[in-house]
Amino acid sequence: MPLSSLSLQLYSVRHALDEDIPGTIARVAGIGFRQVESSYKIHSKGRELRDAIRDNGLTSPTMTASLVDVDVDPVFPIAVDLGAHTVIETFVPDQFWGSVDAVQHIADQLNAAAAKAADFGLRVAYHNHWWELEHRYDGKTALEALVDRLDPAVLLEVDAYWVAVGGQDPVDLVGRLSDRVHFLHLKDGPVNHDNSQQRPAGQGDLPIEAIIAAAPQLEVGVIEFDDYAGDVFDAVAQSFAYLDAQVPA
């Protein structure tokens, strides 16, 4: 399946955003992006990011936000104002995955958030790191144990790089969960915990095209760098050139 659309996770350029939100978004648009994945954390501080996204002709179909053990009520009106269709929980730390009961609690929180989101015409998804793949319960990864407990309406944004770091084959895992995988984080590198060694898509060890092909429900592919040893804008541009070629005109 081809990549239907491509975003940049703005966490990749967070340091530039700290200095200049409008200039950073203009630079992202100048690379060729037509959409971004932005965060509630920045939007909650004011309208500057939302205005910069609109002023540069961009959209933000997905917005990230904490949805577990927090008050979610302020999140969804901002997502609607932004024009997002899905709010993604991106970080439930390792220490909260220590038992089946803990996994159930996370599922309950996401299910409750999804019910509230639906009132706003929004969906909820979950984004993994490596620890959800390292924890195992009843022969399954904690991520798959979570999916077993989620309402069918809750989707996944699979970070294929962290799946590999967590010791799983990302093509196989995305294939097993393909009905839920509507979003993918697409980064590359030598598959280790040294984020500074992450590489532009197509220049590392991940089979990017096979991962995309394993997700027939895929709506958005998202470029992300947790860190980068060089000029992150150059790395983002290289990833965009590689992946945008797979998006039909």
From TrEMBL:
Q: Does the keyword 4Fe-4S apply?
A: no
Q: Which InterPro entries does UniProt cross-reference here?
A: IolE/XylAMocC-like, Xyl_isomerase-like_sf, Xyl_isomerase-like_TIM-brl
Q: Which GO terms describe its molecular function?
A: isomerase activity
The record's keywords, sorted A to Z, are:
Isomerase
Question: Do the record's keywords include Transit peptide?
Answer: no
Q: Residue ranges of the Xylose isomerase-like TIM barrel domain?
A: 26-214
Return the protein name: Xylose isomerase
